[in-house]
Every structure is written in C-alpha cells, then in structure tokens.
Amino acid sequence: MRILIIEKDEELSKSLNDVLTSQNYQCDIAENINDARYMLDIRNYDLVLFSWDQSDKTGIEIIAEIKKEAHKTSVIVLSDRLGKDNEIEALRGGADDFIRKPLDFDILLVRVEAKLRFGASNIIEIDELIINPEEEKIIYEGEEIELKGKPFEVLTHLAMHKDQIVSKEQLLDAIWEEPELVTPNVIEVAINQIRQKMDKPLDISTIETVRRRGYRFCFPKKIS
C-alpha cells in the first residue's frame, strides 16, 4: 500500500514516514501542494494524508482534485484547526476522515488501517466481470477464472483505476515491494498472462495498451 504525506513541517512529516514505514507502508512526502500534484501525476496512491493547518493559505481544493482523478483513493485530513466547522468543511470537500493535531500515532495507524482495509474490500463489478481483491477471486458470467499472484494484482489495480492510463512505473510502485529491483518487463509478462489465461479463452478484452504511456483497463466486450 502506498501513501502520500502532504505536510510542510519537516519534523512531523519524517515522524509520519517513520511510523508508517515501520508498518510496511510505502510512503512519499510532499512539502507543498505543487509537489503533491507532481507526485499524484506520476504515481497512484491508496491513501493521502493531507495536512490542513491554521497557517495554510491554500484551501482544501486538492481533495477534490484527488477524488476526480482517483475516486478510490482515501484522503485523511490532519489539522490543528479548531471548531467543528473546519471538520465539516473538510468532509464535505471530499475527505474520508479528519484527525486533529497533535497526533496520537497509535490512533492514526488504526484509522489508516481502517481506511485501507475498507478500500481493499471493495468488490469491483463491471458488466459480467466481478473482481474480489480480498479473496483474490475473479468471476466472469458466473464462472471463476484462475488468475493469481502478480497478474491478478495488476488486473485489480488497473480495474480500480478504470479508464485511466497507468504507466509501467506506476504499476511497479503500486504492486512490487521493491520496484527498483525488478525490470519493467515483469509488467509485460503479467499483462501477457492476463490475456492468455483470461481474455483469450473468454473472448473478451480487458486491458488496452496505450503506446509509450502504459495500460488502461477497458470495459469488457467481446472481441469477435
């Protein structure tokens, strides 16, 4: 699971990173909104921790941007703003949770785990295709499809970002624990297995190759 931390306080961002990586989460840090937008453009995140404090001149528009591009990405707002009006504004702005500072890291970890668990439990249903990430199960027209391991994870990640172009680098970051130790060719192998074990036998097309950009999950439709 990959998390983006948007926090200008260097000491706090480091503490957040240390706590989360100790629980085997992959983390990136953005010190400001512009850096965050750049990170969000090049990577897919399961969750974003967004610091929204009294001193911030910018609003919470970034939440709407995140949700527009990746609606399944959870956003937790971390804030020192007092009063319930700020919490209401953040939640109405698209945030999935609101945690007040100073942070209790034990509580934060539980809330992060809950949000990620909820997202991972979402069953994807598109036409006659059902993908159950929690049980690593695929069903098409009532029949279970045998696709496991990395090919299943690649298919699921693309399905969760339906209609978006996902690059090889984004897939590596999202699925492989140490992406720097593998080559992009492993993505091609996984895609090929999806097509050989699933698309070809069922006469459907689920993944489109977008030249020089990556892959896109397409609505299943008959090839012939």
From TrEMBL:
InterPro entries linked to this entry: CheY-like_superfamily (IPR011006), OmpR/PhoB-type_DNA-bd (IPR001867), Sig_transdc_resp-reg_receiver (IPR001789), WalR-like (IPR039420), WH-like_DNA-bd_sf (IPR036388)
DNA-binding region(s) in UniProt: 121-219
SUPFAM superfamilies reported for this sequence: CheY-like (SSF52172)
Keywords from the UniProt entry: DNA-binding, Phosphoprotein, Transcription, Transcription regulation, Two-component regulatory system
Domain (Response regulatory) ranges: 2-116
The keyword Ubl conjugation is annotated on this UniProt entry: no
Residues in OmpR/PhoB-type domain copies: 121-219
Protein name: Homeostatic response regulator transcription factor HsrA
Gene: hsrA
